[in-house]
Structures are given as C-alpha cells and as structure tokens.
Amino acid sequence: MLLHDSSDVLLESAKMLHYGGWTKICDSLFVVFALVFLWTRLVVFPGRVLHTTLVLSLEFFEPFCGYYFFNALLLVLQALHIFWAYLILRMIYKFMFMGKVERDERSDEESEVDDEEEEDEPDEEGDECSWEQRKGAINSKLASLANNCVLNNLTNQRNINSRLPKAR
Hints:
- This protein is mainly alpha-helical.
- It is about 80% helix and about 0% strand.
- The protein is built from five helices and no strands.
- It has helices at about 1-20, 25-55, 65-100, 110-120, 125-165.
- Helix 1 (about 1-20) packs antiparallel against helix 2 (about 25-55).
- The longest helix has about 35 residues, at about 125-165.
- The radius of gyration is 24 Å and the shape is flat.
- This is Ceramide synthase 2.
- Its main location: membrane.
- GO terms for molecular function: sphingosine N-acyltransferase activity.
- It is found in: Membrane.
C-alpha cells in the first residue's frame, strides 16, 4: 500500500491543480509524481517485494500452488507498472521537447470524443468565454448531483419512515 499510494497522492494533487488552472505548479508536481512513481514501482517494488516473494521465500518454504499463483499476479502487476511508466515517460518527453501535452496519454476513446467536441465549439471571446462555459457546465453538474443526493435522501427517509411503527 505504501509503495502504491505514495505516488497516487501526488497525481491526484496534480490533477486538482490542473483543473484549477495552476499549470506551473501542476507541471512541477507531475514531474515529482513521475520520479516517485518510477522509483517506487520500477526499483523498490521489484527489488524488495518481488525478490522477497520469488527468491527469499524459497529458503523457508517449498513452492506450492499458491506460490505460483501469487507470484504470477505480482508479475502481471509489474508488467502493468512498466506499461504505465512508459506512458508517463512519453508524457514527460512530449512536455519537455514539444512544450505541452495535448491530453492525458491514458485517456480512453470516450474521453477523446469529449475533448474533440469541446475543441469544435467556437471561442468568440477567448479564454473568458471558455472559462464561463466550463464554470456553467460544472455548476450544472453540481446542481444535478445535489438534486440526486437530495432525492436519494428523501427516498431513503420515506423508506425508513414506512418501516417504523406509527406512534399512537
């Protein structure tokens, strides 16, 4: 948990700063995230965890079915770490040599369609208009979320009240 969560905190903080428009701090924090990610998942994880489970455990126990299954899962996790590290290094390369990363490298097809739709919208007043559009979209999503929460709470309250015996 410590190996994986240490870099996740930095990534989530960088995302918040990106959404808030603090790009310089976001970029710096992303570089720190990348360094921590690369160190913990490509050096510490294989050097400590994988070595312990694959090699050192054989000094104390005979291999059994769980040994192979557990280590196979850990090796799959390490393969994912290598793939994610490749994506992160590619983003850093684009940032350093091309100036700016267009979008998240890990984005799926659905996100790309949303990004393209946003780019197609004309910006008559520049960044001011874009900010107002984003602010309006966020406010409408928050209002929708609040309404859903209120409706869910009301529905749950009605269900609780219907189960309680009525006072006489």
